Amino acid sequence: MKLERTYQGKNQKPAGPARSAQLTDLKRSALKEAADMEEIARKAYFIYLNQGSPQGHEVEHWLAAEAECLADATRIGPPNLS
Fold first, then answer.
1. Residue of 31, 43, 53, 78 with fewest CB within 10 Å of its CB?
2. What is the pLDDT of residues 25-67, one digit of tens each?
3. Domain count within the chain
4. Would residue 61 count as lying in a domain?
């Protein structure tokens, strides 16, 4: 018995490897974002400790940690594959 693919429209394409790759990219992106947030939280905590554990400055600590992570990311940059 031969299976045939039927499409409702000319421009409609079946979900194939491209869709699977997009989902994989989304999962990687979500994992990277979670790892980035953990790194920011870790740095914010150390900033908090280094400043003597002041209360009420959580946002300042978080923003400073984000700035550090961004500086680290731009300083390191993408790998050179050439």
1. 78
2. 777 777 778 889 999 999 999 999 999 999 999 999 999 999 9
3. 1
4. yes
